[in-house]
Specification:
381 residues, alpha/beta, five-stranded mixed sheet, 14 helices, 16 strands
């Protein structure tokens, strides 16, 4: 009962790296122009409303001030939860327009640089997305305008840093997307919606956009890292950006492929996910779909499988149980693959040609539809 009560409570929202960076930058600007430490700061959110962040003032003098905000992602399983987002605001050498001031925004330690096309930020630029960049500029400018008489003709440089960013980035899809050296400063609303479908779809879209921008007309879609490792072993000649982790969002991923001009997709999955796709679900999350063992049993009957095997399928508790019971050459695996391919092509309205590869929980290929050709054959181990 206790676990159920915890799981049923409303999930707590958090704040994006972009919102944290904007708060840290505004704080540093305020400390720099006033010479007074700041411990709390309020910023406006793109989604509407405002929020007050606790601030840590790290150091300041007449030319530079540094402040940081610790990211709170709420109940979202975000790898950047608890990360320190730092901003350094510096009076730069040289002079700006004597009637105002100038402001530049850059990344520093722990913020990645973009090396592949297809993202909202150009190749070679710091991975600070447009909305966070605008937030940082707006919040810092608010402070500078308030003290305009003190800062006329001064150039200001804002540098965003994430001390643990390089290590955190290795736990994200950034390296595959061509964002190297650190994390991205992200967010379109300033708010992290826990376990958000929208956030997942945005992540999938970014992967597919990069794959397409790098010239890939074919991608490999997998539910997660385990199936992706098998896919990488099966298709070693493909570049890393061609592999896309779609999570449970099969339908959305195929439609995004179509939107980006990707004409071919290989879907690699284990029996549970592939069976749900074959049944016709476009979202394979357990809350949105059910693994119908009676349906799998009816397919087994249609294939002429023996009664004992049929009953074992119908009365199985999990897909892993079926995999452990049935031999590798059971015709049911081929049927699941065939139906999954037809379902995927239907979800893309026929715009994406799909190949399905069913792998066991040991990574071994159980069935393919259509079969992989020539040098692409392999066990997937």
């Amino acid at each position: 009962m206790k676990n159920d009560e915890v799981s049923d409570r409303p999930l707590r929202k958090g704040y994006t790296t972009g919102a944290c960076a904007a708060a840290a930058a505004k704080s540093a600007a305020l400390v720099l122009v006033t010479g007074v430490p700041v411990y709390r700061i309020e910023i406006d959110l793109p989604a509407g409303g405002s929020v007050v962040f606790p601030v840590k003032t790290l150091k300041y003098d007449d030319l530079t001030a540094s402040c940081s905000v610790v990211k709170d992602a709420g109940d979202d399983p975000d790898v950047t939860h608890g990360a320190e987002i730092m901003a350094r605001v510096r009076k730069a050498p040289g002079e700006a327009d004597q009637k105002g001031h100038e402001l530049t925004i850059a990344g520093g330690e722990g913020v990645g640089r973009v090396t592949k096309p297809g993202l909202p930020v150009a190749v070679g630029e710091w991975a600070i997305n447009p909305v966070p960049r605008s937030m940082i500029a707006n919040e810092v400018t608010q402070v500078l305008r308030h003290f305009s008489k003190k800062i006329q003709g001064v150039r200001f440089e804002v540098t965003i840093e994430v001390p643990e960013g390089k290590n955190l980035a290795e736990k994200t899809l950034n390296p595959r997307l061509g964002i190297l050296g650190g994390i991205s400063i992200l967010g379109t609303t300033g708010i992290v919606e826990p376990l958000s479908h929208k956030a997942w779809e945005e992540t999938i879209a970014a992967q597919i956009q990069v794959a397409a921008a790098c010239g890939n007309q074919a991608v490999v879609l997998t539910p997660g890292r385990s199936s992706e490792k098998a896919a990488e072993a099966l298709l070693p000649s493909l570049p890393s950006e061609a592999f896309v982790q779609m999570g449970d969002f099969v339908g959305a991923s195929l439609r995004l492929c179509s939107d980006q001009g990707v004409s071919e997709a290989t879907v690699v999955a284990m029996p549970g996910k592939m069976s749900k796709i074959a049944i016709g679900y476009e979202d394979t999350h357990y809350k949105a779909s059910e693994l119908r063992f009676d349906v799998l049993g009816s397919w087994a009957v249609g294939l002429g499988m023996d009664e004992g095997s049929v009953q074992r399928v119908i009365h199985a508790n999990t897909s892993r149980e079926i995999w452990e019971i049935l031999p590798e050459d059971t015709p049911l695996y081929n049927e699941i693959c065939r139906r999954a391919r037809e379902s995927c092509e239907s979800l893309s309205s026929g715009k994406v040609r799909v190949r399905t590869v069913l792998i066991g929980y040991d990574g071994k290929v159980l069935a393919q539809n259509p079969p992989l050709m020539g040098g692409e054959k392999g066990s997937g181990r």
